[in-house]
Structure formats: structure tokens, C-alpha cells
Amino acid sequence: MTDFTFWSPTYFAFGRGAEARTGELVRRFGGRKALLHYGGGSAVASGLIGRIKASLAEAGVEFVELGGVKPNPRSSLIDEGVRLALAEGVDFLLAVGGGSVIDSAKGIAIGAANGGEWRRFYVGREVKVRPAIPAALPVGVVLTIAAAGSEASTNSVVNLEPENLKRAAGGDILRPKFAVMNPELTMTLPPFQTACGLADMFAHLCERYFSPTKDVSLTDNLCEAVMKTVVEESARVMADPNDYQARANIMWAGTLAHNDICGAGRVQDWASHGIEHELSALYDCAHGAGLAVVMPAWMTYVHATDDARFARFARNVFGVGIGESDADAALAGIGAFRRWLKSLGLPLTFVELGAREEDIPLLVKTLNLNGNTLGGFRPLAESDVTAIYRLCL
Ligand code: NZQ
Ligand code: ZN
Questions:
Q1: What's the CATH class of domain 11-185?
Q2: What is the CATH number of domain 191-391?
Q3: Whose CA is nearest to atom 36 of ligand 1?
Q4: Cα–ligand 2 centroid distance for 257 (angstroms)
Q5: Is residue 74 classed as helix, strand or coil in its secondary structure?
Q6: In the chain, which segments carry CATH 3.40.50.1970?
Q7: Pairwise CA distance, residues 43 & 34, whole Å
Q8: Is the CB of 42 under 6 A from ligand 1?
Q9: Is any atom of ligand 1 closer than 6 Å to the C-beta of 155?
Q10: Are the beta carbons of 167 and 158 closer than 8 angstroms?
Q11: What's the whole-model pTM score?
């Protein structure tokens, strides 16, 4: 195991009706005037925003609102949010939605606490060390989709305009103060979005599980347990979107997959995420759908680096490859993973995603490795990344 620091201060209010506590929680974490931030319509249509406003009013929390966050959140709305937050003297960011809304709120939280400056903290693979974020307003979350894990993560991923670059900021300061998690709120998700969320949380576990670090049995076992849960519960939720227990297990799995409890003390990979982010930047596709295309291709390209690890994944997560050589089991595991993604109705190829072969050089260019390598399991150069995109065809 490697040395680590782990600081995960998020307060979770989990269960039916938990959103009624939102106002109380904003106050508990110091908010007197909140910016209520939400997406393109689902939270308004479901009546959730109305209930949140009532909860804020009941707790005596003033608020201004800014809706309209798009999936793959845009920098222009963050700029608007920062202006609004500064003009209104907002002291708290309340995000009601999924990863896109939360990440947009985190961007506004940075800008509002740094005199409007936020963009320079969002960087790509061209830098080795991310710039430290000196200050950020506190962020609270009411989660409506189990997927990105931003409700407890250190990251914010946004689409920088006009260059159309998907870039990330990170630091413990971005961990939300609280996350309200009512699994019932996720029952209105279209099956495709549910599936994208499942793929994303599974990918967050893979990014940690496929590690060169030895003697990490605790986090190996944690990763496998959460992966198995995601696969098992995925069948239940796809069969019955209103299955509360399946939704609940999936929702908590999404948080555990990415708050880093499964990744502490080990080198992590994150190549697939880097490769995917270029797809969702260029094509505006769902992040989880892009991962469904990229992850199996990445696995196919790198498994020989450590077939024993891939064989363990095959046997312990998907129950395949038992009694086979590690090399055969590794391939069986990748095959089972692909079949699982397909069973969820996710794309597996560039064509199914709406991506184009002729854009591969552009995707590699905008990834901008700048001479650095990508990934902790098997460091990848630009030529490797090109080969992985080609395996997605
Ligand atoms: O905008 P509305 O109308 O709300 O619709 C959203 C959106 O179209 C819809 N939706 C959300 N909750 C719903 C619902 N529809 C019906 N009922 C509900 N209860 O779902 C769509 C997708 O929402 P989005 O927030 O984009 O999904 P997700 O949580 O998957 O977030 C994806 C974003 O997070 C980033 C991704 O790159 C992507 O931009 N990530 C953030 C991470 C982080 N901050 O730690 C890590 C991840 O790896 C990821 O990169
Ligand atoms: Zn992700």
C-alpha cells in the first residue's frame, strides 16, 4: 500500500424524503444565502425544485436561482453563475441534479471565492500537477442521478468554451459539505441515463482496481464488492425502474465508487476517463456511454500488462474464466464486461456512439498529452491512445 491522506467530510442524508432536510443542512453548513443551481428541466418537472425552495424558505435560507445546466456543463453558465453569486452576495452553492449540475456549482463556488477567477484551475493532461484551489464557497448537493459520484468527490469536470475542451479541477476543497440522497428521486431517469450511470460508477472502480500497486487486498476486495453489487443491481433496476432497494444500492455504490474509499493507498489509472472526456467534449455524448465504448477497448489493449489481475477481475466480479489460464480468463472477463454493457443498452463502438474514425487525430490532439503519459496501470503515449481509439471502431 502507498501512503495517503484521505479527508472525506461529506455529510450524507440518505433515504426517502431526505430532500425535506435540505434547508436545515444548508444552514448547518453555514449557508445564509444560497445559489440554487439545477439542470435543463427534470428537477423542475418532477416538482423537486419546488420542494427544495419550500425547504429553504422553512429554514430561513435566502436564495437566488440559476437553472439550465446542460450535460457536459458549459463554462458560459459558470461565468453567469459567478457573476450572479458575486452580485447577490451568495455564501453557499446548492446543486440539485447530477454530475453536470454539481460540477457547474463547484466551478461557480471557486469563482465566487476567488474574485471571479475559476478557469485557470481547470486543466488537462498537459500539466503534471493540478493548480491548488485556494478557496471555494461551500457546496451542498441534492442528487438526482447515481453516476458521476461528484456528490462526494474532489473533482469538477467542465466544458471550456469556446475551445470546447473538457477539463477538470480538483482538490479536497471541492468535496461537498452534504449530499441529500433519496433513491426515489432517481426513478424518473430514462433507462439510458440509468445505464450510463451504472457504466460510469463501474468505470470509477476499474480506474482504481487496475493498479500496479501490490499488497492492497482491502481495496481490491472493496472494489470487487462494489462492482459485483453494481452488476447484480443493474439487472433489477433495468427490469423495474421503480425498485427502491435496487435504486438505493446503486445510489450508494455510485458514491463509494468515487469518494476514493476504494482507491486510497494505491496508484490509480484514469486513462479511460482521459480518453473518454475527449469524446464527450467533441460529440456531447453522455460520459457513461463514452466509457462503455472506451473501457473494453482499453482493457483489450492493456490486459497483457498484468493478466493475473484481469483474471482475478474475471473470476471474482463476473464469475468467468474459472479453471482457465490467466491469459484466457482475462479475455473472458473483458468479454463478460462487454456483454454486461450491451445488456444495459449501451453503445460499444464509435458508430453506435456517433463518433467518427476520421476524428481520431483530433481527439488525440485535444487530449494534449504534451509529452506526458496517460494512466497509472500502463502508461500510455499518444500512439497507444490512437491504438485504443482504433479498437473502439
Ligand atoms: O438536465 P436535466 O433535465 O436534469 O436532465 C438530466 C441530464 O439530461 C438527466 N437527469 C438527471 N437526473 C434526472 C434526470 N432525468 C430524469 N430524472 C432524473 N432524476 O440526466 C441527464 C444527465 O445528467 P448529468 O448530470 O450530465 O449526468 P451525470 O451525473 O452522469 O454527470 C455527468 C458529468 O459528470 C462528469 C462527466 O464528465 C459529465 O460531464 N464527471 C464528473 C466527475 C466528478 N465531478 O467527480 C467524475 C466523473 O468521472 C465524470 O467525469
Ligand atoms: Zn466517470
A1: alpha beta
A2: 1.20.1090.10
A3: 287
A4: 10
A5: strand
A6: 11-185
A7: 17
A8: yes
A9: yes
A10: yes
A11: 0.98
